[in-house]
Write a structure and sequence with these properties.
By secondary structure, the chain is α/β, with parallel strands linked by helices. It has nine helices and six strands; from the N terminus they run αααβααβααβαββαβ. Helices cover 40% and strands 16% of the residues. Strands 1-6-5-2 form a four-stranded parallel β-sheet, sandwiched between helices. It binds zinc ion (ZN).
Length: 232
Amino acid sequence: MQLVREYLQDFTALFFPDLCTACGKNLFKHERVICTDCIYHLPYTNFHQDSENRVAKQLWGRFSFVQASAFVYFQKGNKVQNMMHQLKYNKRPETGFRLGELYAHDLKRTDQWQIPDLIIPVPLHPKKKIKRGYNQSEFIANGLSSVLEVPVSANTLIRASDTATQTKKSRFSRFENMQEAFSISHPELLIDKHILLVDDVITTGATLEACSLVLLKLQKIRISIATIAFAE
Ligand SMILES: [Zn+2]
């Protein structure tokens, strides 16, 4: 009987997978997306508690920002890599929402971390968005938003679809091209706001820099940066 029940459970799980996106084990009823054990053991950076953290240092001198941090360390073969894979390539965007929620709880508890007025996800290249079906950073932004109680604006920072010229250009001009890839619609919605720019992973910071430089052309804007993963 036990065996039959287990078989049925496995059978159901096959069609309605309720598996932890970090370790792949079955989730208990009270768990959502990521199991309790994984949440407990994730490699947290605690960067938000330190204004001179490695993300901030990486971005210093490139553009001005209020605060910059990443939630967890991304390493080859670790659970964060699994989650990022599920989030981006395996149609589990709820991973982004859940990580955003968890991160927001930590941020909210930190006195020196300034709550922004608005959250903007880094827009995905339109072709990629069609292929993937969603922008993973938007899910992260929505998760953060639900706990911080700060609105998300997903349509003010726009990514242009035409990057055909990009491959032909030199590395130097590619940076300028990157900035050209982003534009702003309805700038009046952003003026005088403290904006939290959100992305899934920070590696070189080039995309976040390009987005920030475009946003900072507007008046009285302040930028903060939050990503889920920090790739060492
Ligand atoms: Zn797990």
